Amino acid sequence: MKNATRDIGKKLVVLALIIASASLPIMASSHGEAPLISMDRFADNTDTYAFRSVEAGREGFVTLIGNWIPLQEPSGGPQWFRFDDTVLYEIKIDNTGDGREDISYQFQFTTHPVNNDTILGQSAVNQDGVIGSLTDPDYNMPQFYTVRRVDSSTGRRGRLIAAGLRTPPANIGPRVTPNYEANLGQPAVYPLPGGGKVFAGNRDEYFYIDLGVFDALNLRSVSDVGGIDSTKTYNVSTIAIEVPIQELTRNRSAPSSPTDPNAVIGVWATSSRRSLRVHTGDGPFHSGGWVQISRLGSPLVNEVVIPLGLKDAFNGLSPRLDGTIPRVVQAITDPELARLLQAVYGITIPPPPRNDLVQIFATGIPVNAVTGPNYTTFLSDGVAHEYLRLNVAIPITPIGSQSRLGLLGGDVAGFPNGRRVFDDVTDIALRAVAGGTPFTPPTNIAPNNTLGDGVSFNPEGPLLTRFPYLRPPNQGNQPRPSSTPTTGIMPPLAKEIEEK
Asked: What are 244-253's pLDDT values in tens digits?
């Protein structure tokens, strides 16, 4: 009896240790910007985008994109990079301004290997070794996913709007995945009820930045050219969904004007894991409720605004709580990055409190004399909530007329009105933090309003002009190009890439 009691006691102790260890990553997003999420890359949300669709005839839709799994080496086989079957990926929308999601699109993945006896992984010679379609038997580890919409009418479990959808394999190389975009990329774009579309799979990492910024702001250039795109030729894993405007607004109608009280929506993406993970001889077992470990709304906020001691906690927060944590609010009203820019470059910066940054990142920009009577991204109940804000009634800027600087470049359809993949958020953020914008006139002077990282476009080429807009993933088994400084600005006319 004593031995049995002792054995039960040991099991309880082991269970307690498992629960305790499983809870460690709970508090854990950009490219590994927080300590815990940097060690969990398959749940790491790198970028979130929200913009009115610019594809011809699709102007009545909004495109929402979340990217995960940063800096993927195109030749990183034999497993390459798949979405994690144990992660709940979500894109969330707040259309009331209280920081709570009113709509959530949930994505869950399941991998079904075809041949477990091969030494290979995502591809195998089950037939001829060439993956010519999404259903080709040589696609040895196909991944399937479901899409659910959760809102006030569906309850917590949501409504299943798509199931059995396939992700394309990685762009493994010219022998295994020839004619990638035609055979595998575009066939993975699926229609949704209501006329929308959805895609999940690998894409080119289009976010461009010179990561020399983290070497104590030791940039190769602080202008438009001369920097090195540190993410060049890497891939990411993309979830993109296109939704009719009226399915996202508070009153379920397309707003009549940009100042319509229903015109602005808030958008962010999250990753969640089960609260309990137990490793056994048969592999890990996951149970318990979902716990958020990654969050991304506006770009670079957690990387360059939130202090180190709060980065993991911030990734676990709902935006509704942002304004209740004084240190988070202080990080925006008196950002350390501004003081670092002042110290390194000898510039004058606006004094705190930085209400201009609060409007950009935490409340939205109200109608004001600077941006005029028809521009606003304001969405707030009077409390700070950090996420992207998109005014769905502001008309699109046609391809060829867009400015990479968004609002700072006179393009009201760009960041901080949502975020297009094309927007140069690094240069915009540097100038905003330095006070180089019309919202802070005394410091809206050079070099504050000309700061940049020297990279003003993705040197791999223009975006697609159709959903999902991101370029096909870079092909494996190819020489890696050298990192050379950029020497120009991308031509304004984006052309459809040649599909090989």
From this structure: 999 999 999 9
Q: What phi and psi values does residue 147 have, to the nearest 5 degrees? A: -125, 125
Assess contact for 158 and 23: CB atoms under 8 A: no
Tokens of residue 258, six digits: 């940009």
- DSSP secondary structure string, 12-35? HHHHHHHHHHHTGGGG---SS-ST
Model confidence at 39, in pLDDT bands (50, 70, 90)? confident
244, with CB counted inside 10 A (0-12, 13-18, 19+), is middle
The rounded distance, in Å, linking the Cα atoms of 463 and 337 is: 31
Q: What is the dihedral of CA 202, 319, 432, 233, to 10 degrees?
A: -10
* Residues 133/139/141/142 CA torsion (nearest 10 deg): 10
Q: Show Cβ contacts of residue 313 under 8 Å, excluding neighbours closer than 6 positions.
A: 27
CA distances from 108 to 83, 149, 196, 240 (A): 9, 12, 19, 14
> Which structure tokens are listed for 416?
């901080």
Q: What would the pLDDT profile of 156-184 be if each residue is shown by its tens digit?
A: 899 999 999 999 999 999 999 999 999 99
